[in-house]
Amino acid sequence: MSFIGIPFRERDGGRAGTHCWGLVRLVYRENHRIELPEHAEIGAHEVLSIARETKRQMTSRTWLRVDEPRYPDVAVMSALGGDHPVHVGVVFPELRLLHLEERTASVCVPLAHPVIEPRLLGFFRHEAFR
Predict the structure, then answer these.
(1) Residue 110 near residue 95 (C-beta atoms within 8 A)
(2) Phi-psi region of 38 (alpha: psi -120 to 50; beta: other; left: phi over 0)
(3) Which pLDDT belongs to residue 89?
(4) Tell me, which fold does domain 14-129 have in CATH?
(5) How far apart are CA 13 and CA 19, in angstroms?
(6) Domain boundaries, given as residue ranges, for the chain
(7) Which of 86, 92, 88 shows the shortest CA–CA distance to 109?
């Protein structure tokens, strides 16, 4: 998978380094030719802004909440022990999650991973995949 190992960067720089939303944008752009909004004004450390923007994006008509995730649905996650959205990733086949956080480069782990599963708030499908 060519998206593994992309380094974290505060601002979206594509494959040279990005944040979680930038990684979602990269997958949608490169694999599906879908341009998602950039939100360049929001840096990765601006957690409250990210939470508000993620919630706004995922409640738009572009996204449909789904119970049975599949590639390339977007997983919305909280901080461990939290209940507000602060993180996103892309569901890949075999119920794996591609995501990127500051302490790691991009990785693909099972949705059932003990650090991931308790943080999952929901899955959203882009209108192009309904």
Answers:
(1) yes
(2) alpha
(3) 95
(4) endopeptidase fold (from Nostoc punctiforme) (3.90.1720)
(5) 9
(6) 14-129
(7) 92
Report how far residue 110's alpha carbon sits from residue 75's, in angstroms, rounded to the nearest whole number.
Answer: 12
**The dihedral of CA 115, 27, 38, 106: what is its sign?**
positive
Residues 75, 87: Cα–Cα separation, whole Å: 8
On whether the CB atoms of residues 58 and 124 are closer than 8 A, the answer is yes
- How far, in Å, CA of 96 to CA of 111, rounded? 5
Residue 85 near residue 27 (C-beta atoms within 8 A): no
**Maximum alpha-carbon separation in the chain:** 35
Question: Do residues 115 and 80 make contact, with C-beta atoms less than 8 angstroms apart?
Answer: yes
Q: pLDDT per position in the chain (130 positions), as tens?
A: 799 999 999 888 899 999 999 999 999 999 999 999 876 555 555 555 655 666 677 777 889 999 999 999 999 999 888 888 888 999 999 999 999 998 889 999 999 999 999 999 999 999 999 9
